[in-house]
Structure formats: structure tokens, C-alpha cells
Specification:
This protein is α/β, with parallel strands linked by helices. The chain is built from 15 helices and 12 strands. The strands form 3 sheets. An 8-stranded mixed β-sheet has the order 2-3-5-4-6-7-11-12, sandwiched between helices. A two-stranded parallel ribbon has the order 1-9. The chain has a two-stranded parallel sheet with strand order 8-10. Helix 2 links the parallel strand 4 and strand 5. The longest helix is centred in the N-terminal third of the chain and has 18 residues.
């Protein structure tokens, strides 16, 4: 019986690995593959946190993991805390990067905290909808608040230390809002690529993706647009459906009913998202070169690019996708069920495409609403109520916050939801032309574009001023 179960598990793993299905990008900081030679190895530790910070009757606790590095610390030096988000932790950013360099300058103690429900910091036994109710921004930043108080009371000479929080994408949103909600605990924040405006229908995301590709090559984007047009026209006939299913490598024949049709086109847009969000100089040019050098018609060029991205995996359908994420067993590797829950209850951030972003076809908000309903039994009313609550409580693009420096790259689609309306010296916003997602979090390098280098220097200047 045990042998049979093992075989079933292997088959299940093979089926998942052989089918590509839409996974939201893990929008964390760019991967740092090279640590500073002089960096000290970080240490893993845990801290007991309340499952529910806001219910004094609930005494349950869980162990939240974090990394720490005291390489530069001298008593009284500041505490630098990189906030974890929708990803698993590793030693990046406590052994290299902008925060590492600032800790070096200021004799600071470095931390990297793991977000509740992600990685090994699990407050519950499974991911049923009922158990996911403790997964919220309010609970997550309360974890950080308690973490700060704990470290100040346990580290020699840290009782009066300044605290600087640093974040990327969603954790940069956390960094902004923890500075707003707990200003007595957090003295300054660096928010890199932080979306602050909760929004269900995020149509602007793919407009930035398309514009970024067009900046590289008009011919490239025109080819993609024409390829999508030809694909859509072919879906009107049985023969066309069969040909396109084969050409694009779907696991099953393309289903043109909703939400399957929207899901198919959203999957086709995924490679362009990956190429844009973490693009290094020249990456988009290489992608366009690959598209244009493929032989055949525009739709054949498009299909070649899509297939090279997905490799041997076929493109799965919407039903396969929701069935996979209905699994409530804790998954330490794939964090997307948790993030989908947060999206459906607090933020939206659902990336859609329509006539405005025609290069990638039409995929509608209703597909994501169907997803929320299928996965959690959460409908459109709860989604909209959660989004209104988030914007009301935290101020959307006009939060009353000080000593937060926000950095955005214009090639990062998330800057559309993050550039504050009220720009002032107490909460400066730095927009860097042509740079991608959280590029400012790496150490200053000779490879930096001049504007990016200047942005990093300005960040250091603001933090220096605020914690002196």
C-alpha cells in the first residue's frame, strides 16, 4: 500500500511538472547570486508570535523564522530589517545589497524576517479558507512590531537603537504601512517598488509591459500584436482551434468559453511579464531578437517565443489550475494559494488585458473573480470590500507618512500603483527611468546606469539623515 501511494505521488508530481499553468510572479527582490566576499554567514533563528495579535483570549503561538547577521553591529547601532514577503527566505540582503552596505556604514544589526504563512513560518496546520483568516496585512505588520520590541530588549545596547525597515514589492508596501501604523517603533523605511493602491482591475500592468517592449523595437511589438490577432482569428473554426492548440502546445484543445479563454491568453502573456519585471540591460532586446529571428508568420513567431519559454511543459487550462490550488495541504515551496487569498481579500492587483493592451489579447477580471470563488468561496462583494478597507485604512496613494523613501523603476509595471500623489521631502519618491523591479536594492555597481546609481546614493543620504 505504501509503495502504491509513493507511485501515485510520483505520477502527481510528473503531471504538475509537465503542465505549465499560471503562477503569479514571486515579486520579491531580484535574486542576489554573489555575496560580498567579506560578508559573514547569516544565522537562522525563530521567535514566538501570536497567531492572532488582536484577540487577547486566543493564546496560540507559532514560530516565525528569521535570519540575522551582527557582522557590523556595535552597541547602539541601528537595526536594519528586510521584510520577507511572498517568497522563501535565503541569505540575500543580509550578505550583500543596499541594506548590507548601509548597515556597514552605520554599525547596524541586520535581519531578514519571514512572513507568516510563507516558508516555514506556519501558524496553522493547513490552508483551509477558515485557517487562512489570520493571513492579513494587519497581522503581518503586528508580527514585525513585536519582533522589533523583542530584539531591542534582547540585543546588548539596542534599547534605544534606531530601526530601519526595507522591503520589495508587497513587503515594500508593508514597510510603508508599518512606518505609518507604528511610527514609535520604526524610524525610517526604504520601500522599493511598493504598490500602495489596492485595485481589483489592474489594467495598467500590461500597458507598461507593452510599452517596455515597444521601446526596444516597434517591429517586435507589432509582430506580437499581429500574432495575437491571427491567433484570435483562428479560434473561430474547428480546424483553427486544432492548429493553434498544437502550435502553442496546450495540454488539451483550447477552450474558447470563459474563463478558459481568458486564462489561455493570460498564460501567453506570462513570458513578457517575466522578461520585463526583472530585466537586466539588454534582456528585452534579446527577447525581441528571438521573436523576430524565428521563421514563419507573426503567429508562428509568437508561438516560437512562447514555446521556448515554457520548454517541454504543455500549457494547462483554468480547471487544472484551480484544482491544483484547491489543495489545502501546506506547501513549503509554492506560496501561491496564500497569495491568492491575500489578493482576493485585501488587494486585488489582478492583471487584466483588453483593447487598451491589445498586444497580449483579452483576459478579464471575471476570470480572477471566478478563481476567488473556486478556491475560497469568496465572491466579488468580499473582494471589493477588502480593497476599500485596505485603501481606507492605509491611505492608498496619499498615506500620511514620513521618513519613507520610495523607489520605482519605470520599466517595472508595479510603479503604476505606487507613485505617491503628495511628493515631499519627508516622504520622497525616486522614479528611475528604464529600470526594472527593485533594481535599487543591489549594491552600487560600475554596471549601474547613471540614474540608478544616483538613486542609490540618494537613498543612502535620506536614511543617513533620518537615523543620525
Amino acid at each position: 500500500m505504501k509503495s502504491f501511494g509513493f507511485v501515485v505521488l510520483l505520477i502527481a508530481i510528473h503531471l504538475v511538472n509537465s503542465q505549465h499553468f499560471l503562477k503569479s510572479l514571486k515579486h520579491g527582490p531580484p535574486k542576489q547570486t554573489v555575496f560580498k566576499k567579506e560578508s559573514k554567514e547569516a544565522v537562522w533563528d525563530t521567535i514566538s508570535q501570536r497567531v492572532d495579535h488582536f484577540n487577547p483570549i486566543d493564546l496560540r503561538k507559532f514560530e516565525m523564522r528569521y535570519l540575522h547577521n551582527d557582522q557590523f553591529y556595535k552597541p547602539g547601532g541601528p537595526l536594519f530589517i528586510f521584510l520577507g514577503g511572498v517568497w522563501n527566505l535565503d541569505e540575500r540582503y543580509v550578505r550583500t545589497g543596499q541594506m548590507f552596505d548601509m548597515a556597514n556604514e552605520h554599525n547596524g544589526y541586520m535581519f531578514y524576517t519571514e512572513h507568516r504563512y510563507y516558508g516555514r513560518s506556519q501558524p496553522v496546520s493547513d490552508f483551509t479558507t477558515e485557517n487562512l483568516k489570520y493571513l492579513s496585512l494587519d497581522q503581518a505588520i503586528a508580527d514585525v512590531a513585536y519582533f522589533i520590541k523583542h530584539q531591542k530588549s534582547h540585543i546588548e545596547g539596542a534599547e534605544n537603537s534606531k530601526v530601519v525597515v526595507v522591503g520589495s514589492w508587497y513587503s515594500a508596501t508593508m514597510a510603508t504601512w508599518i512606518r505609518k501604523k507604528y511610527p514609535h517603533l520604526v524610524d525610517a523605511a526604504l520601500a522599493s517598488s511598493a504598490p500602495l493602491l489596492a485595485q481589483a482591475d489592474f489594467i495598467g500592468y500590461f500597458q507598461v509591459v507593452a510599452d517596455t517592449f515597444r521601446l526596444s523595437s516597434d517591429e517586435c511589438m507589432d509582430t506580437v500584436t499581429e500574432g495575437i490577432r491571427m491567433l484570435e482569428g483562428s479560434l473561430d473554426s474547428v480546424d483553427g482551434l486544432e492548429n493553434m492548440s498544437s502550435m502553442f502546445g496546450t495540454c488539451d484543445p483550447i477552450d474558447v468559453s470563459e474563463p478558459e479563454r481568458s486564462y489561455f491568453f493570460r498564460n501567453l502573456a506570462n513570458p513578457f511579464v517575466y522578461d520585463t519585471q526583472y530585466a537586466q540591460p539588454g534582456d528585452i532586446d534579446e527577447a525581441c531578437k528571438s521573436i523576430l529571428s524565428t521563421s514563419g508568420s507573426a503567429v508562428e513567431k509568437l508561438a516560437g517565443y512562447i514555446r521556448s519559454f515554457f520548454g517541454d511543459a504543455c500549457i494547462a487550462n483554468f480547471q487544472f489550475y484551480v484544482d491544483y490550488y484547491k489543495n489545502t495541504t501546506i506547501n513549503y515551496v509554492d506560496p501561491m494559494r496564500q497569495w491568492f487569498y491575500q489578493s482576493c481579500t485585501e488587494y486585488g492587483f489582478f492583471q487584466t488585458g483588453n483593447q487598451t493592451t491589445r498586444p497580449f489579447g483579452d483576459f478579464w477580471l471575471q476570470m480572477y473573480i471566478d478563481m476567488c470563488q473556486e478556491l475560497f468561496g469568496i465572491g466579488e462583494e468580499i473582494l471589493n470590500t477588502g480593497i476599500k478597507r485596505t485603501n481606507l485604512f492605509y491611505g492608498a496613494l496619499e498615506p500620511e507618512v514620513t521618513r519613507v523613501v520610495s523607489v520605482h523603476g519605470t520599466a517595472d509595471p508595479w510603479h503604476v500603483l505606487g507613485v505617491l500623489e503628495d511628493i515631499n521631502e519627508d516622504a520622497p519618491v525616486i522614479v528611475v527611468e528604464g529600470t526594472s523591479h527593485s533594481a535599487d536594492l543591489s549594491s552600487i555597481s560600475d554596471n549601474d546606469l547613471p540614474q540608478l546609481r544616483e538613486a542609490k546614493l540618494r537613498v543612502q543620504q535620506y536614511i543617513r539623515q533620518w537615523i543620525s
